[in-house]
Design goal:
Blueprint: H1 2-37, H2 41-52, H3 56-68, H4 75-97, H5 101-113
Helix pairs in contact: 2-3, 2-4, 3-4, 3-5, 4-5
């Protein structure tokens, strides 16, 4: 009976060591992923692409989501964000004037949130 108890302890100890080693490498990968997630460049690129392709409402939603995310913008990021919002709003106004429903929706979204 005592031999079974020692085996059980050995198994538990091995499992704890294995999980603690896995946790460290996972944490490092998570930190790297978090650093990339904090970058607004991919979101800004997508929003600019959507503005160019006429998906004004999708671009506005991405920009609003970025602002609502609580991300603390650097000066450079804030400038890029304001430009993107301005571009999205200008393009949406022009599209809405031509009767584009996506332009009108984007314009209303940006107005509602004060993102102009």
């Amino acid at each position: 009976m005592e031999r079974i108890d020692r085996s059980w302890v050995s198994i538990c100890l091995g499992a704890v060591l294995m999980f603690s080693a896995c946790g460290k490498s996972s944490k490092s990968a998570g930190d790297a992923g978090r650093a990339n997630a904090n970058s607004i460049e991919p979101v800004m690129a997508e929003a600019n692409s959507e503005i160019q392709s006429g998906k004004f409402d999708d671009a506005a939603a991405k920009l609003m989501g970025l602002r609502a995310s609580g991300h603390e913008f650097s000066e450079k990021e804030a400038l890029a964000y304001r430009r993107a919002v301005s571009d999205a709003y200008s393009a949406a106004v022009a599209a809405a004037a031509k009767g584009d429903p996506r332009g009108k929706a984007a314009m209303e979204m940006l107005r509602a949130t004060g993102n102009r």
